[in-house]
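Hi support team,

I've been running sequence recovery on a batch of backbones for a student project. Most finish fine, but this one hangs at about 90% for roughly twenty minutes before it completes. I'm not sure whether the input is malformed or the queue is just slow. I've pasted the structure tokens below so you can try to reproduce it. Let me know if you need the job ID as well.

Thanks,
M.K.
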């Protein structure tokens, strides 16, 4: 897995168009402080072909998750937000510009570390 660095976050979100109209495939708690989120998303670098993306949150501080059975019903039109503030990554469903709205999001994860790995899309 590749670490997502603060200085590459904007390019990462641009590459995947802020995950607009993507699909949340699975949320898995891998340890008490680690959560893996699997997403199918269109990749700008691959002429918008669909790919899978596994996003691993480590040193999770707080989270509000959705049951996997309900993920397919989540409206992803507004995409996902990933914000870095005060040394933490804030991951939220929806279009947020600051970390202030984190707890209003349907699903969120706050962690100290974020890594990702490309995979097969699960469409």
């Amino acid at each position: 897995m590749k670490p997502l660095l603060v200085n590459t976050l904007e390019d990462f979100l641009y590459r995947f168009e802020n995950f607009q109209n993507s699909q949340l495939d699975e949320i898995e708690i891998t340890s008490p402080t680690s959560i893996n989120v699997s997403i199918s998303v269109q990749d700008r670098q691959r002429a918008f072909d669909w790919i899978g993306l596994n996003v691993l949150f480590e040193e999770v501080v707080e989270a509000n998750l959705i049951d996997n059975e309900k993920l397919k019903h989540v409206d992803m039109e507004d995409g996902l937000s990933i914000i870095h503030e005060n040394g933490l990554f804030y991951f939220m469903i929806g279009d947020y510009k600051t970390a202030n709205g984190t707890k209003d999001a349907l699903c969120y994860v706050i962690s100290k570390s974020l890594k990702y790995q490309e995979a097969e899309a699960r469409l």
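--
Follow-up from support: It reproduced on our side and the slowdown came from queue contention, not your input. The mean pLDDT is 95. No action needed from you.
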